[in-house]
Every structure is written in C-alpha cells, then in structure tokens.
Amino acid sequence: MALLPASADSRAVQSRHHRAEAPPKPRPLPYPALELPLEVPNSQYVPLAWSDVTGWREDDHLAAYKAFRISCQPIVAQNGPPPDSKALGTSLRDPCRIARGLELSEGAKAKAFFEENFLPLRISRLGEGEGFVTGYYEPIIEGSRTENEIYNVPIYRRPSNLFVKGQTQASAGLPNKGAVYRKIGRRKLVPYYDRGEIEDGKIEGRGLEIAYLKNQTDLLFAQIQGSARIELPDGSMVRINYDAHNGYPYTPVGRVLIDRGIIPREQMSMQKIREWMEQNPDGANELRRANRSYVFFREVNLSEKDEAVGAQGVPLTAGRSIAVDKGLHVYGTPFFIEGDLPIESERAKTPFRRLMIAQDTGSAIVGPARADLYFGAGAEAGRVAGRLKNNARFVMLVPKALDPLARGRKLPVPDERPSARIARLFPQVEPAKPTKDAAPAAAMPAVGAQASIPLPVARPKEAPERDTRRTRQSRDR
Fold it and tell me: What is the pLDDT of residues 215-265, one digit of tens each?
C-alpha cells in the first residue's frame, strides 16, 4: 500500500503492517520563518490599555510632548538604517514627523498625540516585575580659569594621545565603551593611564586644562554626573560636558563604602559620600582610586539658562529626560515611569507618575527597565537626585507600526504534537557527539541504536475508527 498525502490537519499515523517500510524523506516546514513581534534582549513585556497605566490621565502630557519634539529633530534628520540593531529600529521616525508638524499648546491634545501614535507595553527584566531608577543632575561648582593656591585641581579635556581601535579623534562621544590606548613610539599601544596615574600628574603640563577646582571630590562628582557648571570668581560661568574616558570600567564609590561596612546601604546617598570624603581626606584619596575610570570634558557654548546636553546631542529637560541603556533602547523613546520615590525628603514616598523621554545614557545604566532621572542643575537638584535608588514600574511607548499583538497574529500555530504511538514508533534521538578518535558518522553507522527518523507523511487509517482528535484552537481565543 502506498503512502498517500493527507491534509495538514490530519494526524500522522503509521500502520502496524508497514513498520519495516523505509521512512519517507523529511517534509519541508509548512510555513515560512517569520520575525517575532518585538524582541528586547533579556526582557519581558505585557501590552496594556491606556486605562491600565496608573497616573496616565493626571500627567502633564504637554511637558512630555515638548521634550519628545526636541528628540525628534535628530531622529527626523536620520537617513538609512540605524547604526545599531535595536527593537524599535527606525520606527520613531513616523511619530516624530507628525510631531514636528504640530505646534501643540494644550495638554489634552498632547495626550491624544501619544495615544494615537503609540501603544503602551509594561516592560521589565526577564523574571522581574519592576525596574530600578536613580537620579542625576548638573553640579554648580566654584572654579577658576587659572591655577592658584585655592583652585589647583585641573579639569582635563581629551588628550590627543588617546586612541580607540576603529575610531578617530573626530568621533563624537569618543569613547563610551571599550578599550582605550595610548601610543608608545610609532606602533606600540598600551592601556591608557588610570585615575591614580592621572591624579599623580601623568598628563599635566600639556595644555589640556579647561579650568581648576578646589578639590578632587568636586571633580569626581562632575565626572559621575557627566556635566557641570563652573562658576568663576568674576561671576561668569563655564559649561563642561562629557567628551571621553580612559577605558577603565566605572566602579561606584558608594558600593565600595557599602561593601566595606562604612555606610549602610539604606543610608547611602551622594551627600553621605561627600560628607565621608570631606571628613576622611586620606581615605578619600584611596576611595577615588578604587574607581580607575577617569572622564575627560569638553567646553560647551551654553548660557546659564540652558540645560546640559545629553548623549543624544539634544538639551535635557529637567524632570522629563532620562538616561537609559543605549545598547537596548533608541534615543527619543517615551517611557512612563511609575513609583513612590523620596522626592520631598529621604523618607518620603512621593507618588511619581510621569512620561519621560530617553535622551541620555550612562555606564551604570544597564537593562531594559533601568533609568537615571534628570533633575536639573544646582544643590537642590543634587539632593533629590542623590537619594534616589528605588524600584519603579516602566511602561515603554512603542510606535503603532510595531504593534506586537497585530504582528503576533501573523505567526502560524505550530503543528500538533504527535501521538504517543507515533512517538514510540519514531523516537527523536539526538545524534551522538563524535569523539576525537571516532570516525565520521557517515563511515560508522550506529549498530543496535535507534537512528533519528523524521515523522512520516500522514495517510488515512485502514479501518474506520472513532475520531478522537482535538481540533486546533485559534490563537485569538
């Protein structure tokens, strides 16, 4: 009896009278391989309705819209595919083109814009329900253009002998990660100087000094924040921004103090770190050098009223800009962050439900639901930012072109699981891994072992029996 083709919904059956018959050739997949709806590495997400986003209706959507429009300028100017492969890809270009053509002045219309062009997805790290937020700000620090007895700690610009493989000195934001070298002679490259070596004067006297500060603690906090405003004795201001680092991984000094039992984890804040360093100058020197990373700055032409510029290349907005993991997320992506944070005081649980825009990044910001909230410039912003280290819930706004539900409906339902009888007749055995001394599998067929056999082509049963098959359920149910 010949094997006859059957419909795709039929269950493959092998007659007991033909067990010895040679198995058929493997059949091709019944459907083409399709891309998954949305893939953010090491993350999980759940589509929501807008009514499920706690605090969405009460937020100031116009403030978020203005920050989003700022991000849209470089997004709309992009041509071609993005340099990095990320889940959102170039999908923000469509809502950005719409936003660039709208001059909204009402919160209700701004809210409608986000609802009409985006879909909310609750996102978190795989296996976790919440994300984590910290805060950052722009310090205002006293300094001088010239070195003297009071101001003697230099702020360095990027050295000309700093090299990164595959990049040039003209590369923007050089570098944000990877090994950094300095050249010895004509060809030899060695790791760049670490913090201790730079503090000991390895690059002094080369004309790299932008300005001078009172102490190394002020410089460390400017480096941690990535920007600063230097207030000169005559009242004028020098604005500096991150330009490069020396290639060593960032080691949080707060974590060192916690690990050594000096400051309890629940009391840790930037203010606590500063107080301890001021009271322990010798310990502060050793603590700083435990963080071998060192940041170089560039002077930027910004007025006192302008906000710092983030990694996206646009001015940040206090209370609306966040730094995210640039390896996972696209700059300009809106995130609604919801949690109870110590905004008003260290022990306060101030409700925070706000739409934020991803416009910056940081070496310590890693993961799909991890953000640094920008609070502006000055001492008060620093106090608020310094005490944030809290769990929060993240809702990522995804352009409607990437609707995961709509794309998921196009994925075909897998074939039914074979019956127990078929599984016994044709067990799927993993092929044995060859050893060093073993001959190739083709030259040494297995003896007495069950070879891996593909499922046979379906065919009708010989005698009518009661049909006990289960029908395949629709994915939409």
Answer: 999 999 999 999 999 999 999 999 999 998 999 988 999 999 999 999 998
The Cα–Cα gap between 149 and 144 comes to 11
Collect all residues with Cβ–Cβ distance below 8 Å to 101 and sequence separation of at least 6: none
Q: How far apart are the first and last CA of the chain?
A: 41
Residue-by-residue DSSP string for 373-392: EEEEESHHHHHHHHT-EEEE
For the chain, the helix, strand and coil percentages under 3-state DSSP, each to the nearest 5: 25, 25, 55
Is-above-0.70 flag for pTM?
Answer: yes
Helix (H) or strand (E) holding 138: strand 131-138
Average pLDDT over residues 285-291: 95
Question: What percent of the chain is predicted at pLDDT more than 70?
Answer: 77
Sequence-ordered strand ranges (E) for 7-69: 43-47
Residue given tokens 């909204």 in the structure block? 104
Are the CB atoms for 275 and 34 separated by under 8 Å? no
H or E element at residue 244: strand 237-245
Q: How far apart are CA 420 and CA 334, in angstroms?
A: 50
The conformation of residue 232, written as its DSSP 8-state character, comes to -
Which residue has tokens 């399709």? 34
Tens of pLDDT, residue by residue over 69-126, are: 999 999 999 887 776 678 888 999 999 999 998 989 999 999 999 999 999 999 999 9
Contacts for 171 with CB less than 8 Å, ≥ 6 apart: 164
Measure the CA–CA gap between 156 and 175, rounded to whole angstroms.
Answer: 15
- CA dist 409 and 300 (Å) reads 50
Other Cβ atoms closer than 10 A to 438: 11
| φ/ψ of residue 289, rounded to 5 | -75, -15
Let me know if 122 is exposed, middle or buried by CB neighbors in 10 A (0-12, 13-18, 19+): buried
